Please model this.
Amino acid sequence: MSHVLVTGGSGFIAGHVIVQLLDQGHTVRSTLRSLRKEGAVRDVLRAAGVTRHEALTFVEADLMQDAGWAEAVAGTDFVLHVASPVHTGKAKDEEEVIAPARDGALRVLRAARDAGVRRVVLTSAFHAVGFGHGHIDHVFTEADWSPLFGRGVDAYGRSKILAERAAWDFVATSGGPMELTTILPVAVMGPVMGDDVSGANHIVQNSLNGRMPGYPNMFVPIVDVRDVATVHVAAMTAPGAAGERFLVGTGEPAVAMKEIGAVLRSDLGAAASKVPTRTIPDVVVKATALFNDEYKSVAADLGYVKRVSNEKTRSVLGISPRPAREAILAAGRSMVARGLAD
Model:
């Protein structure tokens, strides 16, 4: 068993990663921006089934500060760098979104190299692969990179592209024997941890609570957070994972947003009474995007069904993610159970 650092321990993906690492017998250290959060994070993990709390420690470290990172990586075999700021729509200053992702990744990589860490697994995103290309007839693979200023690429997308490219450049020029693997999940759904709803789970929550008036003609490639966590843990030690990118998706075509609603209605009964049935016309979405930046990436991909290969994840890591329907239902059921769907 190994000693593993997981950055951003209060996050959605990181929480599931920590659960799986502890279940497998690893010792885990995790970073938080403030140790004042430790008690709350431990409560969330305990509710998720963690029992080996003696094997889990926390250290304070911020992606925008050097302090704490030497302590965080000291004595670790592997680093899973999951922490990254999340921002949708237009930022007043894009550097406020990009710097924590890019500079934070480099800060973690430098500390890991100096501490003799064997491999860093960095969480990137499908934004670094499948956005801004236009409606091309193409199956996206790890060989693809999103253009920085392609239509539909926002500040968050640019932060993911620039952070991952910077990480690869650093390891190639200054990383020494340290290995790097990057993980690029599509839209992540699945069982919530605690009361925080993040990522694509907001689509499910806003469907259940009635805040979404209808669905745009948009298609979303979906993957379950539990499978994303499994890929991170497997990539940590898999011999063939060093120096590789891994797209994490179901292998299915992207799911129509109206189908997300249909899945929720078919399973959740009265709890899904507010789930919309109407479709928002394309012309309305495009008009809204003129003055609402959060709609610009939606407008760019109206009617476009993205196809994403998961062949490398299956062949190298031996992981075949569960169907998107299971991720949608797990998200919905967990929100209803925790009172987060009202």
Remarks:
- The radius of gyration is 19 Å.
- The first helix runs from residue 12 to 23.
- The CA atoms of residues 134 and 151 lie 7 Å apart.
